[in-house]
Specification:
globular, Serine Threonine Protein Phosphatase 5, Tetratricopeptide repeat
């Protein structure tokens, strides 16, 4: 008789460099891949996020089918679904990548109480419980964490297709997926290779320009594990080793450091699960946020009257993705200009972004709000107009996502309210009618925020 192991796919939609899949292959004669639609997680997803997941699932189903296997799709509470499936196929074990969120750890602990679930590394390049201070406590500041992280034995990522003997049991019940576009892990690995062989050498110089393709654009692939963090680290280090040009090395090192930020935020959530719902710094849990449903709604819909903010929010609402510099700008606007609780912004991002990663999203919002581990000083408040002029100098990003301003000349694109009424009409704009007036004065907002933070600092 042949033995079967279950590979439980969660955030690792790839065959190459997958430690959970490798462990399943070693444990049994054949492997049955399974994905479970967890109602707890699905209820948090907006349409854009679910559409991306569906495309990834269709891509994975096709990849496995071409190799003679089948991806089993089921819906329900994971422990119960896995119990039923293990009984049906008499699986000798269940293998999955360990995750760091409080929900994921609670879910996996519940499964392990009654089922042979083995958790492997893989969500991060180095497991989140490994990089510690000499006294065994976790780091809470990025720079010393990154230095200690770089001293660790570096992951040896695989880029070879594994040989998998897939289990195929036609009698197994499985949900069907509707027809539609596909996302394949192989495409993202190729994108990663292209980025780390070319554009990584301009990364630091272009990454903040929202009007340019200066980033890798791979955050959704990182989130669902279409590429592994170890692969990203390996290729980034290869890029560093392949040039002696100090400028190129600095650019590549900057991108590697961004990958390490991801490692850092995952470690923070692992060691301090309470940050999921509250500020890391205790004193900033008492900030008196303003209850402003209208302001929150205007921000969410991209109708604040600040073009760069509105362009960024509309990009997210239509594409399910937003440029990282734009994320910092809109987060600062919500928290520091409108003085609205950062948790409401975090929730909005998690609903709308295809790359909505709990650890990264939580860490990023806390950083901008100044309530995280080593966040910037509370008095660092982005000026949305200056940010717009600096990172979208010609207004191309704004015009792309805020068509009401498409004809506004560059000198006014960042502050269209400065045009006289006749000038507005000449360019198809009527402030307050075709495009909203700014919902708040930035200088007033800055003073208000400094006072609110000052009361608790």
């Amino acid at each position: 008789m042949t033995s079967t192991a279950i590979w439980w796919i969660r955030r690792d939609f790839r065959l190459i460099d997958n430690q959970a899949l490798s462990a399943a292959c070693m444990a049994a004669d054949s492997v049955l891949p399974v994905f479970i639609f967890d109602p707890v997680l699905l209820q948090r997803d907006a349409p854009a996020k679910r559409q991306y997941l569906d495309r990834v699932l269709r891509g994975m189903m096709e990849t496995i089918a071409v190799q003679g296997g089948q991806l089993v799709l089921r819906r329900g509470e994971p422990a119960q679904v896995l119990h039923n499936l293990q009984q049906e196929v008499q699986a000798v074990g269940i293998f999955a990548e360990a995750d760091v969120s409080p929900y994921a750890r609670k879910r996996d602990a519940a499964v392990q109480e009654s089922l042979p679930l083995t958790l492997t590394a893989g969500v991060t390049a180095i497991p989140s419980d490994v990089v510690l201070k000499d006294d065994g406590t976790p780091y809470t500041v990025y720079t010393p964490f990154s230095k200690a992280w770089k001293r660790q034995p570096q992951p040896a990522a695989s880029f070879e297709h594994p040989s998998v003997n897939w289990a195929r049991m036609e009698s197994l019940e499985s949900l069907t997926m509707p027809e539609g576009k596909l996302r394949h892990a192989a495409d993202y690995l190729a994108q990663l290779r292209n980025f780390t062989s070319e554009r990584i050498y301009q990364y630091q110089e272009t990454r903040n320009r929202v009007d340019l393709k200066g980033t890798s654009g791979l955050s959704p692939a990182f989130h669902l594990g279409l590429i592994s963090a170890a692969q990203a680290v390996t290729l980034a280090r290869q890029a560093l080793n392949q040039t002696d040009d100090p400028r190129k090395r600095k650019n590549a090192e900057t991108w590697l450091n961004e990958v390490i930020w991801r490692e850092f935020y995952h470690a923070i959530l692992y060691h301090f699960p309470h940050v999921r719902n509250q500020a890391f710094r205790e004193k900033y849990r008492d900030i008196q946020w303003i209850d402003d449903p209208a302001g929150l709604r205007a921000w969410q819909q991209g109708l604040t009257g600040y073009p760069i903010v509105d362009a960024a929010m509309r990009q997210m609402n239509t594409k399910g993705w937003m440029h990282n510099r734009a994320r910092m700008i809109v987060a600062s606007f919500l928290v520091k200009d409108l003085l609205i609780d950062w948790k409401l912004g975090e929730e909005t991002f998690m609903r709308q972004l295809a790359d909505g990663d709990i650890a990264n999203n939580n860490g990023g919002w806390k950083w901008t709000a100044g309530v995280g581990t080593d966040a910037p000083p509370y008095f660092r408040i982005f000026n949305p107009i200056l940010q717009s002029k600096k990172f979208d100098p010609n207004g191309d990003y704004i015009r792309k996502y805020v068509p009401e301003l498409a004809d506004v000349p560059t000198p006014f694109i960042h502050e269209p309210w400065k045009m006289k009424p006749l000038e507005q009409q000449n360019y198809g704009l009527i402030m307050g009618e075709t495009y909203p007036q700014p919902i708040i004065d930035h200088q007033f907002a800055r003073k208000r925020t400094l006072a609110a933070y000052g009361e608790v600092k």
